[in-house]
């Protein structure tokens, strides 16, 4: 029976959770043809990943037809969503080499995680040192791709330590898609007489060309982010257990609509000039400078857990403070604040919000029946109280089979962009309230030794949905709690091994088939609605991991994506509406592992081929994604 790391909040085993949880395990990641977390997640049928650049430079991850704002991202149970915009949620200080496994919790989880787990949560679990080790990973490939990762782990008495550093760069697959990033990550665990302490911290610096990210009219965009976080987790007790978590996260973002760099635009006086071109939006309307944002999050929570014959009971509280400094988003500051490291740049706006959560849960796991109920109350600045609940019932038989049904509420707070963004075609709304949903789902599971099956159907009612709407085609988009959405979905995932089913165990094999289908019904009155005009309609995924002979593996995946909706592009400076077209992607990896007996080294060499058939496709409007990309490496 596998107990998940979601037990950082709720302690119950996989089979009895009554929720759809997909585990991306270490073996799958080791041979999967992907070297970034976003592409790794994209290979799962239940996850929609939309990127604007290579190797997850800016990736939006969503679940069950929601948007990226509605998916909670965690590292070892620590929330790392960004309050400015979900575009920054995947700016994580961990790399695939740091990860032990990933949990994907499908469906609303407000009663577990609070706000923003509206459509589900993705929890990345990093490696736990078991012995002293040194790990080195080098790779390179087309388009000037270079990467390195080094990590070290060691144990001392009852303490464990893990430290890693990585660096990746590329010249880009087309003009202005180059990138360079650095990551540092630390994790330790300390056992003492008074309990268990876990510490982790991380840092990422990511700079990348943002070709046409937000508009095709100005392709020379650029962005640089810097982010760091630190967290402490503590637990103690046996029958009555006490848990405490404190974390801090800071994220800094500089966005340049006109890239300021050699061979691009230079800042000369009051203008940005590239050769004979002066950055402007028309006659006498010149570019005024870059956008700067700094968000900070302070979070603390505690909970008590009591185990009895009636099951597990939990009570807890959480405090979450979110703050932004910006020259674009927020309310005007009385006094501007100089931006460190930037010449003549200032924060002129700010906003802060305080969120409080109180939650109670109880779980009972019998031999056949399991029951779980939870209630969470959310209190925001104005002290309005909003309760959200969930109830799950599951039944199992013959140990391998189970069915479940659940009814859950969820909520999502508006981002600072939803609240305050102002542009030529968009107007935020500082009076936005949280969007809410009610979801009903039911499913079946089979968990055998060589065969695992999960099938789920669900219906989600979204109300007070945060939407960008306008009265007519010539008006500007405005954010409102307006649109009602009904999402119906079917998800199915099958994992098996033909060789093991035939009782042939000389060669390792893992096969996986996944499918997701979504339909949306939208009610936005007489207004034109931007929300849900494009969403994942269906996704089919097949992957294989096969040992050909001892130490030599072939791994590959192929998936088909059908996206509903259209986007606006410019043809000869005229607006043209185009439908998203469906596409197939196929990736392949070949690797060979062997042990150098005299030195005790474990070596692996690999070749990765992304997008083998050089498919032309778009995840977002006007942004062509990379074609075939070959890389190789050694570990």
What does this structure look like?
By secondary structure, this protein is mainly beta. The chain is 4% helix and 60% strand. The protein has a 22-stranded antiparallel beta barrel. It has a five-stranded mixed β-sheet with strand order 1-6-7-4-5. Strand 2 and strand 3 (59-63) form a beta hairpin. The chain is globular and about 75 Å long. The two termini are 32 Å apart.
Brief sketch in words of this structure:
This protein has 635 residues and is mainly beta.
End-to-end CA span = 32 Å
Oligomer: single chain
Please work out how many helical segments DSSP would assign: 5
Q: Could you tell me the radius of gyration in angstroms?
A: 25 Å
Which outline best applies?
globular
Relative helix content: under 10%
Biggest sheet record: 22 strands, antiparallel, barrel
- Uncertain segments are 6-16
Strand content: over 45%
Indicate the mean pLDDT. 88
In total, the number of strands is 37
Q: Tell me the structural class.
A: mainly beta
What are the salient characteristics of this protein?
635 residues, 22-stranded antiparallel β-barrel, 5 helices, 37 strands, 60% strand
Reconstruct the topology from this structure.
Layout: E1 21-24, H1 26-31, H2 37-42, E2 47-51, E3 59-63, E4 71-75, E5 78-79, E6 99-106, H3 110-113, E7 120-126, E8 133-141, E9 145-156, E10 159-170, E11 179-192, E12 195-209, E13 222-237, E14 240-256, E15 266-268, E16 271-274, E17 277-278, E18 291-308, E19 311-326, E20 331-338, E21 346-365, E22 369-379, E23 385-397, E24 401-412, H4 416-420, E25 426-427, E26 435-447, E27 451-470, E28 477-496, H5 498-501, E29 509-523, E30 528-529, E31 535-549, E32 552-564, E33 566-571, E34 574-579, E35 583-596, E36 601-610, E37 629-634
Parallel strand pairs: 4-7, 25-28
Antiparallel strand pairs: 1-6, 2-3, 4-5, 6-7, 8-9, 8-37, 9-10, 10-11, 11-12, 12-13, 13-14, 14-18, 15-16, 16-17, 18-19, 19-21, 20-21, 21-22, 22-23, 23-24, 24-26, 26-27, 27-28, 27-30, 28-29, 29-31, 31-32, 32-35, 33-34, 35-36, 36-37
């Amino acid at each position: 029976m596998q107990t998940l790391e979601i037990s950082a909040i709720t302690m119950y085993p996989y089979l009895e959770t009554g929720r759809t949880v997909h585990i991306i395990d270490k073996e799958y990641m080791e041979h999967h043809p992907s070297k970034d977390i976003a592409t790794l997640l994209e290979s799962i049928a239940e996850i929609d990943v939309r990127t604007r650049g290579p190797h997850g430079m800016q990736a939006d991850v969503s679940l069950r037809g929601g948007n990226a704002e509605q998916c909670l991202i965690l590292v070892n149970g620590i929330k790392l969503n960004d309050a400015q915009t979900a575009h920054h949620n995947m700016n994580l200080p961990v790399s695939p080499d740091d990860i032990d496994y990933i949990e994907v919790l499908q469906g609303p989880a407000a009663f577990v995680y609070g706000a923003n787990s509206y459509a589900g949560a993705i929890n990345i679990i990093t490696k736990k040192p078991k012995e002293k080790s040194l790990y080195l990973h080098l790779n390179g490939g087309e388009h000037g791709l270079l990467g390195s990762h080094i990590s070290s782990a060691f144990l001392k008495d009852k303490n464990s330590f893990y430290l890693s550093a990585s660096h990746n760069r590329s010249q880009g697959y087309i003009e202005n898609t180059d990138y360079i990033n650095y990551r540092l990550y630390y994790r330790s665990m300390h056992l003492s007489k008074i309990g268990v302490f876990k510490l982790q911290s991380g840092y990422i610096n990511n700079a990348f060309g943002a070709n046409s990210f937000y508009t095709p009219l100005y392709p020379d965009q650029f962005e640089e982010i810097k982010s760091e976080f630190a967290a402490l987790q503590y637990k103690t007790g046996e029958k009555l257990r006490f848990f405490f978590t404190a974390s801090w996260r800071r994220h800094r973002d500089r966005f340049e609509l006109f890239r300021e760099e050699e061979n691009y635009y230079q800042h000369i006086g009051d203008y940005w000039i590239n050769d004979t071109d002066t950055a402007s939006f028309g006659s006498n309307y010149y570019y005024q400078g870059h956008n700067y944002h700094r968000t900070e999050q302070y979070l603390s929570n505690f909970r008590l857990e009591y185990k009895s014959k009636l099951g597990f009971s939990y009570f807890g509280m959480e405090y979450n403070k979110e703050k932004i400094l910006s020259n674009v988003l927020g309310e005007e500051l009385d006094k501007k604040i100089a931006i460190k490291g930037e010449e003549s740049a200032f924060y002129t706006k700010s906003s802060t919000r305080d969120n409080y959560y109180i939650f109670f849960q109880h779980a009972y796991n019998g031999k056949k029946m399991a029951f779980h109920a939870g209630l969470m109350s959310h209190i925001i600045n104005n002290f309005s109280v909003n309760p959200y609940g969930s109830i799950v019932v599951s039944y199992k038989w013959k140990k391998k089979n189970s069915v479940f049904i659940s009814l859950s509420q969820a909520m999502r707070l508006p981002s600072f962009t939803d609240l305050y963004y102002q542009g030529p075609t968009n107007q935020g709304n500082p009076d936005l309230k949280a969007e809410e949903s009610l979801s009903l789902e039911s499913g079946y599971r089979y968990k055998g030794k060589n065969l695992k099956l999960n099938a789920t159907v669900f219906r989600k009612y979204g109300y007070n949905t945060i939407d960008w709407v306008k009265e007519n085609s010539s008006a500007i988009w405005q954010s409102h709690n307006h649109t009602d959405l009904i999402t119906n979905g079917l998800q199915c995932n099958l994992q098996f091994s033909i060789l093991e089913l035939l009782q042939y165990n000389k060669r390792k094999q893992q096969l996986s088939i996944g499918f997701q289908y979504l339909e949306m019904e939208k009610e936005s009155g007489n207004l034109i609605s931007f929300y849900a005009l494009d969403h994942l309609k269906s996704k089919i995924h097949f992957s294989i991991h096969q040992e050909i002979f001892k130490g030599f593996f072939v791994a590959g995946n192929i998936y088909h994506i059908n996206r509903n909706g259209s986007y606006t592009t410019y043809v000869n400076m005229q607006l043209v509406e185009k439908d998203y077209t469906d596409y197939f992607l196929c990736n392949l990896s070949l690797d060979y592992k062997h042990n150098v007996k005299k030195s005790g080294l474990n070596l692996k060499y690999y070749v990765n081929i992304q997008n083998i058939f050089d498919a032309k496709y778009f995840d977002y409007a006007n942004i062509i994604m990379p074609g075939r990309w070959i890389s190789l490496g050694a570990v």
